[in-house]
Amino acid sequence: MEIKVVRNILEANEVIASQNSALFAEKGVYVVNLMGSPGAGKTTLLEHTVEHLKDTRKIAVIEGDIETSRDAERIAGHAIPTVQINTGGACHLDGNMVRSGLKGLDLDQIDLLIVENVGNLVCPAEFQIGEHHKVMIISVTEGDDKPLKYPLMFQVSSVLLVNKIDLLPYLDFDMKQFHSDALKVNPKLEIIPISCTTGEGLDAWYRWLEERSS
Ligand code: MG
Ligand code: ZN
Asked: Model pTM greater than 0.85?
């Protein structure tokens, strides 16, 4: 019984997500769904990304959080259109929430929309929002065992940003093992080690995004 309910929710979501996707195609908006744990560095990455791309791309951001508009305020400080969605307890964004968030944006004026999902390694991976690609960010402080423990998120993502690599000397994080586990779970995953503190690796991420949102 329970299983059936969950499946129906996911099926209903797929319908709305494909409507969002059709709208993005019609308006020529490239959409990324950015996922990761709380504290992985999603908002900080977005601040750098917005600064780097805002002169050449018309960027907008949707911020998903359970409560507060703190992240949206940080992004809006970079003078781009920003919408905050508060899920009021739900630990992920779904197609319907993103659809309501879109009401706050003029899609005709946007080339690239980045949606920061709620900090969570589990269910954001299950819910389509109409995005072109899912991107996962993980911090090396979270440990190198995550690909095998939370395989779905690694499977559905196109890019994996491995953040805070400047902290590697202080941590017991086996990068080689992590890479090999992540690729075991998803052989097509593009892995980009980065540090939002030193800026290392960020150019590769910007390039990936620029190639798709031109
Ligand atoms: Mg955030
Ligand atoms: Zn959830």
From this structure: yes
CA-closest candidate to residue 94, choices 117, 112, 122, 121: 117
Give 93 Cα–ligand 2 centroid separation in angstroms: 7
The Å distance, Cα 130 to ligand 1 centre, comes to 20
Cα of 4 vs centre of ligand 1, distance in Å, is 32
Say how many Å lie between the CA of residue 73 and the centre of ligand 1: 11
Residue type, 45: L
Q: Crossing angle for the helix pair 2-27 and 95-102, nearest 10 degrees?
A: 30
Q: Do 154 and 160 touch, CB atoms closer than 8 A?
A: yes
CATH class of the 2-213 domain in this structure: alpha beta
pLDDT tens profile 77-108: 999 999 999 999 999 999 999 999 999 999 99
Among 139, 56, 120, 127, residue whose Cα is nearest residue 97: 127
Q: How far is the CA of 64 from the centre of ligand 1 (A)?
A: 8
Q: Which ligand is nearest to the CA of 72?
A: 1
Summarize pLDDT for 18-35 with one digit per residue, the tens. Answer: 999 999 999 999 999 999
Closest to 46 (Cα-Cα) out of 126, 125, 135, 128? 135
Q: How many Cα atoms within 13 Å fall on the side-chain side of residue 36?
A: 25
Residue 1 has pLDDT above 80, yes or no: no
Alpha helices in the chain (DSSP H): 2-27, 42-53, 70-76, 95-102, 146-149, 151-156, 175-185, 202-213
- Enumerate the domain spans of the chain: 2-213
